[in-house]
């Protein structure tokens, strides 16, 4: 009987000891979570390259007047993200008194990417189709710059001009669609900045006037010196 009581007391001691050690393990887990979150923040893409600032806007949102509410929601979401995306919204950012064709062309040329908010109103608006064609002319290849965004539109109504482009449908899940637009713009900007950084870090520099590298100049001078000595 005494042995049974002794084993029970030892079991309670082990349980109390494990309870005292649990808080430290939870603190370790919390610290690991904080470390992982800080590392994820440090892994954000570097978008400070000069290539990004060569254009006034990261994204131009093309939409019809009837779809201004959806366009404003998309712009509000993108501009509230940590990367600080610069968006062009026609009714907000166009120059007062400017001509519509000039403003539309300027908006396309001043932006890295273009989100086409395609609805039935978009397809019936000649200025929207005009801006869509301007975007396609600016970047005819499907390289992530033109982003079709469908809203309450059947697949059969999808513009034939965009048949080689994947689209984002925000009809069923608007938040998820906005996130996809955000990731697409960031992916293009990240690639753009990486290419620009690799160019700047290249060891060979080129004379902007003659287009000849420093190695080429050195070779030319050595050839001239050898010729003179001959």
UniProtKB/TrEMBL annotation:
Q: Which top-level group of life is the source organism from?
A: Eukaryota
Q: Which InterPro entries match?
A: TIR_dom, Tol-interleuk_rcpt_adapt_Tirap, Toll_tir_struct_dom_sf
A Pfam family per the record: TIR_2
Fetch the Gene3D superfamilies from UniProt.
Toll/interleukin-1 receptor homology (TIR) domain
Where the record annotates domain TIR, the positions are: 55-186
Give start-end of the signal peptide: none
In residue numbers, the region (Disordered) covers 1-48, 199-230
- How is this protein named in the record? Toll/interleukin-1 receptor domain-containing adapter protein-like
